[in-house]
Design brief:
323 residues; alpha/beta; Rossmann fold; 2 domains; 6 strands; 8% strand
Length: 323
C-alpha cells in the first residue's frame, strides 16, 4: 500500500512540475518555468528545514548539549540528498528488488537478520543493506508493516513470522534491526511473544522509545501512539523487564529531525550510542550502524579477536546465547 501511495505522489509531483514548466514556457516566462518546476520538485527541502527549526527550538534537553548550527546544516543537507532516494525511488518502485534470503539451502547455520522499517515506509527502505547482506550470504527477512496506519501492536504477528522463518532456516536466534517506529514494533513483539530469549540482539536506529515532540501533530493511530508520554508507550514500558532492555543497542542523535528531544531514542539499560550531525533517515545508513549489525550477525562472541565480517556457524548453540 505504501508503495502505491508513493508511486502516485512521485509521478503526480513530476507531472505537475512538467506541466508548470510547459505552460510557463509557452508563455515565454522561462525564468518562472524553471523556478516553479524546481520549487515543486525540491520543495520537500523546505519542509525538512522546518523540521530542523522545530528541532532547534524544542529539541533541547535540560543539561544536554545542543547541536551547533553547522551540524544541523550538515544533517539537513544529508537528509535532502537521501530522502528522495527512499521515498521517490526505493520504496515506491524498488520495494521487491531484493527478495528475502532465508532459505535453509543457503543459510543453514548462519545468524540471520530481521529488518523492520519505520512509519510511512516499506521494505525498500533497506535495499542498500539487503544487497550487501545478500552478497555476503547473510540470511535476512525484511518485513512490510501492514496496515501502514494502524496500531503498532498489529505488527507483532508479522515480526513473529519473520523470526520463525529465519530460525527455522538457520537454527539460530536472529538479530533484529529496526528503524524509527520499527523499534517500537520490535518492543511490542518482544513483550507479546516473550521474544527476549529468541533473539541475539535488537538494534534500533532513531526509534522514538519515549515518543517524539512531533507526535502531537499525528492523525493516524500509530502516529498518536508515538506522541511523547502516550498511554500506549506507558503501557508498553510497564510490560517490559530490565533484562529485556539490556538486549538492545539504540542509535540516536541530537540532529534527528523527527525523533526529539534527543534522549527519547534511548532506553534505560541498553547500549545507547550517539551518532553526530546525522538526521533521521541518514542515520540508518551510517557505516558505524552497519558495522555494529555485522558484528552481532557475523562475529563469534567467544572470540574477542574475531573478524566481524566472518559468518560463524551457530547450529547447536542455545538460541538465547548473547555476546
Amino acid at each position: 500500500m505504501i508503495a502505491r501511495i508513493q508511486q502516485i505522489s512521485t509521478l503526480s509531483l513530476l507531472a505537475f512540475a512538467s506541466m508548470w514548466a510547459t505552460v510557463m514556457g509557452w508563455r515565454g516566462a522561462y525564468g518562472w518555468a524553471m523556478a516553479g518546476a524546481l520549487l515543486i520538485v525540491f520543495g520537500y527541502a523546505i519542509f525538512l528545514g522546518i523540521e530542523f527549526m522545530l528541532l532547534a527550538r524544542f529539541g533541547a534537553e535540560k543539561g544536554g548539549v545542543s547541536p551547533a548550527a553547522g551540524q544541523l546544516l550538515r544533517a539537513w543537507f544529508g537528509e535532502v540528498v537521501r530522502a528522495p532516494l527512499v521515498f521517490c525511488w526505493r520504496q515506491p518502485f524498488r520495494s521487491r528488488a531484493v527478495p528475502d534470503h532465508e532459505f535453509a539451502a543457503v543459510s543453514g547455520g548462519r545468524t540471520g537478520v530481521v529488518f523492520i522499517h519505520g512509519f510511512v515506509c516499506n521494505r525498500g527502505f533497506w535495499n542498500p543493506w539487503l544487497r550487501r547482506f545478500r552478497a555476503m550470504r547473510i540470511p535476512f527477512v525484511a518485513v512490510n508493516l501492514e496496515p501502514p496506519f494502524g496500531s503498532i501492536d498489529e505488527y507483532a504477528d508479522l515480526i513473529e513470522l519473520a523470526v520463525q522463518k529465519l530460525h527455522n532456516a538457520t537454527g539460530c536466534a536472529p538479530v533484529v534491526v529496526a528503524h524509527s517506529m520499527g523499534g517500537l514494533a520490535a518492543r511490542a513483539w518482544l513483550t507479546r511473544f516473550q521474544g527476549a530469549e529468541r533473539v541475539r540482539r535488537i538494534i534500533t536506529i532513531a526509534s522514538p522509545h519515549h515518543g517524539t515532540w512531533l507526535g502531537r501533530f499525528a492523525v493516524t493511530t500509530n502516529g498518536e501512539q508515538m506522541h511523547s508520554g502516550s498511554q500506549w508507550l506507558q503501557s508498553l514500558a510497564r510490560a517490559e523487564r530490565p533484562s529485556d532492555l539490556a538486549r538492545f543497542t539504540c542509535f540516536y542523535g541530537h540532529c534527528d529531525n523527527i525523533v526529539f528531544p534527543v534522549r527519547t531514542a534511548t532506553l534505560p539499560g541498553a547500549d545507547n550510542r550517539h551518532v553526530s550531525a546525522t538526521a533521521h533517515i541518514h542515520m540508518a545508513f551510517r557505516p558505524e550502524v552497519m558495522q555494529e549489525v555485522l558484528r552481532w550477525a557475523s562475529a563469534d562472541p567467544a572470540n574477542s579477536g574475531a573478524d566481524p565480517m566472518r559468518v560463524e556457524s551457530c547450529v547447536g548453540r542455545s538460541e538465547s546465547r548473547s555476546p
